[in-house]
Amino acid sequence: MRHRYSFLDPDLIRQMLAEMGLRRLFNHLLLQSGGDVEEAMRWMRMLQQRGLIDENIDLEAFFAQLTEEQIIGQDGNGNMTLAAGGERQIRRDALDEIFGGLKKSATGYHSVPTAGQGTERLTETRTYQFGDDPMSIDSIRSLQNAMKHNDPAGHISILEDDLEVFETEHNSGCATVVMIDISHSMILYGEDRITPAKKVALALTELVLTKYPKDSIDVLLFGDEAVEVPISEIPYVKVGPFHTNTKAGLELAQRILRRRKHSNKQIFMITDGKPSALTEGGRLYTNSFGLDMKIVNRTLEEADRCRRANIPITTFMLATDPMLVNFVEQLSQINRGRAFYSSPDRLGEYILADYIRNRRKFVH
Predict the structure, then answer these.
(1) What pLDDT, in 10s, does the model give residues 129-153?
(2) Cβ neighbours for 176, distance < 8 A, ≥ 6 positions apart
(3) 3-state secondary structure string, the chain?
(4) Which of 17, 309, 317, 349 has the greatest number of CB atoms lying within 10 Å of its CB?
């Protein structure tokens, strides 16, 4: 079963075209089609026939340009395929679309419990703490804070609470595993959740590969079972007739992280939030109706094992159903991790539930 682009509201398509442009629309359709270049091209021609793409745009010239730039190519049988340059472009595009406007200080991009020596000064500041390097004090911000409580005589007294210091990048290495839910619920009721899930995964991998090249990034899929896949396979991921074996995914993620020698380790889980299966005695136990407490408890136990191993779980929740949100909140509390909540069509807006700092705020 696939989510067909023709089912979308024409007004929504026009909005996407206005915001994305041809190249980003093509990338979006590629992800929806599971990396099928020819199907994405057919969809674009269909959109133009329906008047949703300007008839004056030469789509064939656009496709020829993609071929010239080695974004797309042909296999040995003459079929159109996504080239290596196209895979890199999709990752970069996903990163720009999802994280481009988010504040670096609020996204939790690179959550590390063990901070290394800072080497690069950032524009963000924070309150001074005992032991901070005096050379990192932001004199302008500190003076502005002090001026807020001037005495009538105009004297300026700088208190310790007025001092702010510049943040710095951390050097500590981090090993990350990205878990992608490929259960049937990710496309249930005609709602496409797998495409935004792949976008998040692509954005995260591109972020690590470009900004933190000394870190490691691994990807796994979890449905009835969990399987590790190379990063290059993300665009081609498709949903199957699977249940959601979140426990198996967390188990595999921990095995992968044990191979890594980094001092900091973390899991990014992309899901619609509902575990519906677990493996016991080599057999698959399933229950798709509601939340089966046997499955839930075993999954939460796995999240607790991650906590004891100092592996925080950041969950990208692509659904807002109260029951599913409640499960993710329980998992985050037990693991002392975090959760980003977003509807599938608005990935740029999250409510960051940060149980490490015990607060919740909007991220723009």
Answers:
(1) 776 777 778 888 888 888 777 666 6
(2) 204, 208, 215, 216, 217, 218, 265, 266, 267, 268
(3) CCCCHHHCCHHHHHHHHHHHHHHHHHHHHHHHCCCCHHHHHHHHHHHHHCCCCCCCCCHHHHHHHHHHCCCEEECCCCCEEECHHHHHHHHHHHHHHHHCCCCHHHHCCCCCCCCCCCCCEEEEEEECCCCCCHHHECHHHHHHHHHCCCCCCCCCCCCHHHCEEEEECCCCCEEEEEEEECCHHHHHHHCCCHHHHHHHHHHHHHHHHHHCCCCEEEEEEECCCEEEECHHHHHHCCCCCCCCCHHHHHHHHHHHHHHCCCCEEEEEEEECCCCCEEEECCEEEECCCCCCHHHHHHHHHHHHHHHHCCCCEEEEECCCCHHHHHHHHHHHHHHCCEEEECCCCCCCCEEEEECCCCEEEEEC
(4) 317
Q: Is the pLDDT of residue 269 over 70?
A: yes
The second-level CATH assignment, the architecture, of 174-363 is 3-Layer(aba) Sandwich (3.40)
Domain boundaries along the sequence of the chain:
5-82, 121-168, 174-363
pLDDT at res. 168: 67
- Report the C-alpha gap between 106 and 197 in whole angstroms: 21
